[in-house]
Amino acid sequence: MNPSQIGQIHTLLQASTSSLDYEDHGGRRNNDSRSNFSNGEGSSEGHSYLDDELETLGRYGSVNTSVLDVTQHRSHSSSGMSEDKSSLLIERMRRRLRFFFMNPLEKWQTKRQFPYKLTIQLVKIFFVTMQLILFASYRYANVNYTNDNRITFSHLFLKDWDSSREITTYPPTSGPLAVYTKKEFFEYLNFALNAYTSVEEVSIGPYFYATPDGSMGSVQLCVDRYTTGVIFGFNESFTFDSQTEKACLEIPATALIAQRGTFKSEEYLKANNFTISFDSLLEVDLLFTLKTIRFRDLGPLKSPDCFLFDVAVEFNNRDHDGQTLVSLDTTPHRLICKGSTEFKNENKLERIGRSGVNYIVIGMCTLSLVLCCRAIYRAQLLKTETVAFFKKFFQQELTVNERLDFLNFWYVLIILNDILIIIGSALKEQIENKELTGDAWNICSLLLGIGNLLVWFGVLRYLGFFRTYNVLILTLKRATPNVLRFLLCALLIYAGFTFCGWLILGPYHMKFNSISTTSECLFALINGDDMFATFAGMSSKSALLWWFCRFYLYTFISLFIYVVLSLFIALIMDAYETIKLYYTEGFPRSALQEFIQGPENINANTSTYGSTTTAVHPSELPVGRRTSVAGVLDTIVETICGCSAPHSSTKTCSTIPVNGEDQPLLHA
């Protein structure tokens, strides 16, 4: 466009604006702009009308451009703006998804977003592990102390107790402690009662009677028996009632003191009309209580404890096989000690230290729980937006696996271990304050142990950020479905061998006495453990069953070691080789992953979102991330100018200054 054409445009516009009112850039009527322009003065606020028209005519090419041409161009411009808006929406969604699926290190490198959850998990591991070490030492000392006291009571109150019974060996070196005659039964009963009367003088340990004044307490003798049970052996008849009853007789301390060391239980029972019928007898329990104080620490913190032990000497005759088993059991209860004032002050400081660790762990796990729940909630919101986005722009539904990508199972694992550790820490605090005892120790250890196990499992997530360590996780993930299907089939065969061995070999082999021991024996055989002992342990009373045992064991060992285990390892190796191949040739991508990667990984004229290939106009493809400098410049030009790249063969972009700013201008 030459200067003469611009002068003609100027004259025409002056004539056409004489009878019209125009609005300025802020939307207000501006008559002053026309007068200023006619006087040769440019408007100081916004674009003047003439400037707008000059820009419009400059865009459309010449003064001879018709109104229809202008209208059509504006229509195309509106369509182009709509396409640009769609492209921006697509790119915005891609960037959101790409950022969502980044790991904490990538988010830090991209936006300098501090990895709060990662930091909390690492610090939490330290405190949770420290808490577990303290509680494990404390619990081991407590359980070991109660077991040692049970052994001590066995030596004090059980006649003929031997130290060899204190160690669990396989196979057992001695049979069970039992009585076989009525005389032996009353001898064992008398021995326990007489030992109780002199326990404070005889025992090395500080054991005392559980009465407020320290005097000897009474003893209870409880008998559990059938309501009616009389056997007439001469004619193989009996009188029997399957209902059971429990009768207890209290033996006062005065009777024990009167015959200290020479108490005769049989005579005392007859004198009190309390008879024991061995035909209907199920169980006899001798019950009494003792207290003790331990100065030695029960863990890493020096804190003497006071205990009360409920002692029970049991005579078990439930099998009615002529053998009455004798055992001793104790139930410990922790008491509040009344120590010196100086120690109370020191104990208070130790309690504050223990409680401080518990509260720190509870606080960190609560914070971790809240952050992970928030992350899962936000991920579900993003999933909902993504589903609607794909349906609108690509007319495609996300698959189940693609939807599951928005559920981070590592966060679920963290939430689970946080809940377990919070509950376990609360129980630990009550146990250490001596508010709970008994089964609370075991429940607390289960909660803290499983929670700590899951915490350390969660560390695998952060090792997965590195390729070398991620192989293990990907291999397990790849192999899990096939392994589960394989184990289901193997379990059916294993169950058949288990039930068969229990039924046939149970009465003649100690390793097959019950369904649990049979399963344990077979599992040990799979791992090559104790094979010869299993073969040698079979009784030779029945030649048929002896030969069957050989055939049974040879078949099971050959099938599971040489076939089942080999196939199991092959499944794992196949998954490992597949992952290695993926690292070499690339991992398969879902439609969602293809979208996140961007159009640089997709054909310029096709869309490969999903399993099918759908043709897509180039203008509908989302603007992708350019890797080269030229690509970056092309993207900048297309975004700012709204036109084709400079290397286009039909159109080129240039700019003219309008109101001090460079604006794009198309040349035909």
TrEMBL record:
<feature type="transmembrane region" description="Helical">
    <location>
        <begin position="551"/>
        <end position="573"/>
    </location>
</feature>
<feature type="transmembrane region" description="Helical">
    <location>
        <begin position="483"/>
        <end position="505"/>
    </location>
</feature>
<feature type="domain" description="Mucolipin extracytosolic">
    <location>
        <begin position="143"/>
        <end position="338"/>
    </location>
</feature>
<feature type="compositionally biased region" description="Low complexity">
    <location>
        <begin position="33"/>
        <end position="47"/>
    </location>
</feature>
<keyword id="KW-0472">Membrane</keyword>
<feature type="transmembrane region" description="Helical">
    <location>
        <begin position="409"/>
        <end position="428"/>
    </location>
</feature>
<dbReference type="GO" id="GO:0072345">
    <property type="term" value="F:NAADP-sensitive calcium-release channel activity"/>
</dbReference>
<dbReference type="GO" id="GO:0005886">
    <property type="term" value="C:plasma membrane"/>
</dbReference>
<protein>
    <recommendedName>
        <fullName>Mucolipin-3</fullName>
    </recommendedName>
</protein>
<dbReference type="InterPro" id="IPR049134">
    <property type="entry name" value="MCLN_ECD"/>
</dbReference>
<keyword id="KW-1003">Cell membrane</keyword>
<keyword id="KW-0406">Ion transport</keyword>
<keyword id="KW-0967">Endosome</keyword>
<keyword id="KW-0812">Transmembrane</keyword>
<dbReference type="InterPro" id="IPR039031">
    <property type="entry name" value="Mucolipin"/>
</dbReference>
<dbReference type="GO" id="GO:0005765">
    <property type="term" value="C:lysosomal membrane"/>
</dbReference>
<feature type="domain" description="Polycystin cation channel PKD1/PKD2">
    <location>
        <begin position="447"/>
        <end position="579"/>
    </location>
</feature>
<dbReference type="GO" id="GO:0010008">
    <property type="term" value="C:endosome membrane"/>
</dbReference>
<dbReference type="InterPro" id="IPR013122">
    <property type="entry name" value="PKD1_2_channel"/>
</dbReference>
<keyword id="KW-0407">Ion channel</keyword>
<feature type="region of interest" description="Disordered">
    <location>
        <begin position="17"/>
        <end position="48"/>
    </location>
</feature>
<feature type="transmembrane region" description="Helical">
    <location>
        <begin position="440"/>
        <end position="463"/>
    </location>
</feature>
<keyword id="KW-0813">Transport</keyword>
<feature type="compositionally biased region" description="Basic and acidic residues">
    <location>
        <begin position="22"/>
        <end position="32"/>
    </location>
</feature>
<dbReference type="Pfam" id="PF08016">
    <property type="entry name" value="PKD_channel"/>
</dbReference>
<feature type="transmembrane region" description="Helical">
    <location>
        <begin position="357"/>
        <end position="377"/>
    </location>
</feature>
<keyword id="KW-1133">Transmembrane helix</keyword>
<dbReference type="Pfam" id="PF21381">
    <property type="entry name" value="MCLN_ECD"/>
</dbReference>
<keyword id="KW-1015">Disulfide bond</keyword>
